[in-house]
């Protein structure tokens, strides 16, 4: 197949599929209730014993307190991803907090939090 | 001996079919409201990975082809180009695919290349195209050497390999439940391959087949999809990025960081590169075996069910120690 034709097909195909997916509502981020967050954390970390779950007001993130320390669960598209809060930086963000993980597979998560939530989550993440 | 033999690059010619089939699957899901899930960024990442795979083939394909042609010049055998030879080549190459794929899950060096194919939490036709950019660096082309030395022309070997990949495209779907029983018995199907993509303990390291599922049945790695244990797609530790660069290279970076850690013996460094994924020198990570053992400790009722058959009793107490070299 001529390279120009292949390139056109690939670029056009990706653009068409992306546009169709977006227009049909497939770009929504996952919204969680506390019980969803608990189930999702256990899906990612089945050995963990969860003490408490705090879901952000927008439902896109949850702070999970486990027996071994805090963890963060956040929406990744329609799904979730979780990380224990072990090696990370917490940076103030105009809309909440920015978590920078020292992890190439999950570099950062931006949390949209109210002012009250931001203060509360800072305290919870810093708790030993 | 024939040096000049050409077959069409079937994977490139299949690109329009891939696009049409993805659009058809998406329309089916939207209309029927069942049969799978799509997410925009996940799908775009998969498609970009597929495009990158084609590009890496164009840029780096000469390395494998040069190696194959060198072998072709030294072999005294030439089986010709009859239909029966092509068919035999297809079956033997499918056996080759089974073992390369199995190594892709059991040798971290090869897993570093293959991991991206499993990095989506979705399972749809775009997942089929989430292919590696770094396959050349695994040197798994050597597994094709016996075929060429036996007298199969390199162009034919690559042709049947392309057909094998095209076959595997349609099995990446939840829109098809199960095929007729005779077909499920012999061929790789959406059901068998869904199990292969599962991160559930039951489905780890099973169903490596490309086209013929008989290889898994022959070599003891077949696990049928269980209706009561719905497949959870993705990685044991799911990645938190849609960035194709990170998807393509994250495990290679993990290998590099582990191998260069201070204070390790040479044996431990080699194990970080070539032992099964999940190896750690201090037993702080989980391999497939320890994940299965931990699952059985939580769910003893699953013992000796598909995916857990043959695991030794009472393993859970020392599983972390056993995982360390």
UniProtKB/TrEMBL annotation, chain A:
Identification of the protein by name: Uncharacterized protein
Lineage of source species: Bacteria, Pseudomonadati, Pseudomonadota, Alphaproteobacteria, Rhodobacterales
Organism domain of life: Bacteria
Keywords, sorted A to Z: Membrane, Transmembrane, Transmembrane helix
Membrane-spanning residues: 6-23
UniProtKB/TrEMBL annotation, chain B:
Segments traversing the membrane: 12-31, 43-67, 79-99, 147-170
Gene Ontology molecular-function annotations: glyceryl-ether monooxygenase activity; iron ion binding
Segments for region (Disordered): 296-315
Topology relative to the membrane: Multi-pass membrane protein
Subcellular location: Endomembrane system
Residue ranges occupied by any Fatty acid hydroxylase domain in the UniProt entry: 86-221
Pfam families in the record: FA_hydroxylase (PF04116)
Keyword line: Lipid metabolism, Membrane, Oxidoreductase, Transmembrane, Transmembrane helix
Main subcellular localisation: membrane
UniProt keyword Transmembrane, yes or no: yes
Comp. bias intervals (Basic and acidic residues): 296-305
GO biological process, one term: membrane lipid metabolic process
Entry keyword annotation includes Oxidoreductase: yes
GO CC annotation: endomembrane system; membrane
InterPro entries, alphabetized: Fatty_acid_hydroxylase (IPR006694), Sterol_desaturase/TMEM195 (IPR051689)
Name under which the protein is recorded: Sterol desaturase/sphingolipid hydroxylase, fatty acid hydroxylase superfamily
Taxonomic source organism: Cribrihabitans marinus
